[in-house]
Amino acid sequence: QAYMSYSNIAALTHLAAKPGWEITSTLDNIKIWTHEEGDMLSLKVEMQVKIPSHLAFSLLSDFTLRLQWDKHFLTCKVLQPVNEDEKIYYVTSPPMTGHKPRDFVILVSQRHPCKPSEPYIVAVKSVTIPSVPPSSEYCRSEILCAGFQIYSDSDGSCTVCYFNQVTSGVMPYFTANLSGSSKSIEDTALECIKFLE
Questions:
Q1: Residue 174, exposed/middle/buried by CB under 10 A (0-12, 13-18, 19+)?
Q2: Is there a contact between 5 and 121 (Cβ–Cβ < 8 Å)?
Q3: pLDDT, tens digit, for every residue of 49-71?
Q4: The model's pTM
Q5: Most exposed among 114, 119, 157, 186, judged by the fewest C-beta atoms under 10 Å?
Q6: 3-state secondary structure of 85
Q7: Rounded to whole angstroms, what are the CA distances from 66 to 32, 59, 196?
Q8: Residue 121's beta-bridge partner residues?
Q9: What is the phi/psi pair of residue 64, to 5°?
Q10: What is the average per-residue pLDDT within 76-97?
Q11: Residue 110 pLDDT > 80
């Protein structure tokens, strides 16, 4: 378990630090970046939020609250708390046209910064639990690496960066957006900011 949580945090930190991120869209307080490597597309959404970083961290690390702002989450329940910094959740997503609804079993690891210049981290990856096997009702999907880094800008504001390493499993949600036919990433980011503030 210690290794799983370490690798979860390390994978997100590594993804965030990669060179070669390209900015694809800029709104008032939202920037969207992409990073391509082989058949792997990574996404970064940077949001300026007018609340203290520790508050954003406590709201974003509780995944049951995501239903309030992320329409890609249909249900979310805690399967087991691993320790105070780690929980395993079961999440379902609404069906895309012509597809079954998806489900995910994810480990969410959270870390407080050691120094003021470091971010709060909420890292997410899929895990396998024998007690929750895939069912015929859902298409079991995998999250390789996703999560949030939250940097403090001042006492009352912070920068929230959301990352997702997009696999073919979650690709349908993003392709329409990046081709410009949908604004779901921006819409979700705006909902996230509204929820946090």
A1: middle
A2: no
A3: 999 999 999 999 999 999 999 99
A4: 0.90
A5: 114
A6: coil
A7: 20, 9, 11
A8: 111, 149
A9: -70, -20
A10: 91
A11: yes
Domain 1-196, classified CATH 2.40.50.100, yes or no: no
Q: What's the CA dihedral at 92, 196, 12, 89 to 10 degrees?
A: -30
* 167/42 Cα distance (integer angstroms): 9
Q: Which two tokens stand for residue 84?
A: 């105070």
**Mean per-residue pLDDT for 84-113?**
92
Confidence of residue 15 (pLDDT cuts 50, 70, 90): very high
Cα(first)–Cα(last) distance of the chain, in Å? 34
Residue among 123, 168, 104 at smallest CA distance from 11? 123
